[in-house]
């Protein structure tokens, strides 16, 4: 039981560091982030919304992960976000887009697209495991 809790806690800590780092790096170089978004293979009309939505979503997820009562929701939100990023990197690797877009900011900007894919996939796997380990204790109802 202790190993399960430790796994969940380490996963949550990794996610908090990852999302906090990426959100802050996007805000610190907001012009660069907007430029990178404009070089993605989706309409530039999405950029003003995504430029705020992505880092704010990462910060909201961090807040959810920090509190026990909202941790499971934070893990599910993390899974959705990391799955979306993983699918996106997979599509880049499969040459689905007409051109290779710019990479993301933060720590993953130094990775190749293949490394980025496996980095994201690693997080999808550990988040999934953490959800399974955390879910059973989060849905217990107290009897009155």
Can you lay out the helices and strands and say which pair or pack?
Layout: H1 2-28, H2 30-38, H3 47-66, H4 71-93, H5 113-138
Helix pairs in contact: 1-3, 1-5, 2-3, 3-4, 4-5
In short:
The chain has helices at 2-28, 30-38, 47-66, 71-93, 113-138. With 144 residues, the chain is mainly alpha-helical. It has one domain (2-136).
Protein described:
There is one protein chain. Helix 1 packs across helix 5 (113-138) and helix 4 (71-93) packs antiparallel against helix 5 (113-138). With 144 residues, the chain is mainly alpha-helical. The model is unreliable at 138-144 (pLDDT under 50). The protein has one domain. It contains 5 helices and no strands.
The largest sheet, given as strand count, sense and whether it forms a barrel, is:
none
Q: Would you count the extended β strands for me?
A: 0
Distance separating the two termini: 26 Å
- As a whole number of angstroms, the C-alpha radius of gyration is 17 Å
**What's the rounded overall pLDDT mean?**
89
Oligomer: single chain
Which word captures the global form? Answer: globular
Helix-strand string: HHHHH
Strand content is under 5%
Number of helices: 5
Unreliable spans are 138-144
**Relative helix content:** over 70%
Which class of secondary structure composition applies to the elements?
mainly alpha
Q: How many individual domains?
A: 1
């Amino acid at each position: 039981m202790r190993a399960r809790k430790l796994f969940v806690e380490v996963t949550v800590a990794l996610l908090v560091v990852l999302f906090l780092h990426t959100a802050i790096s996007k805000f610190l170089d907001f012009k660069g982030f907007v430029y990178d978004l404009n070089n993605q293979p989706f309409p530039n009309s999405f950029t003003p919304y995504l430029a705020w939505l992505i880092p704010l979503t990462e910060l909201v997820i961090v807040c959810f992960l920090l509190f026990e009562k909202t941790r499971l929701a934070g893990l599910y939100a993390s899974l959705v976000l990391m799955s979306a990023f993983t699918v996106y990197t997979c599509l880049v690797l499969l040459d689905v887009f007409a051109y290779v877009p710019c990479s993301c900011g933060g720590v993953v900007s130094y990775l190749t697209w293949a490394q980025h894919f496996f980095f994201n996939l690693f997080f999808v796997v550990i988040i999934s495991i953490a959800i399974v380990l955390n879910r059973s204790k989060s849905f217990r109802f107290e009897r009155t």
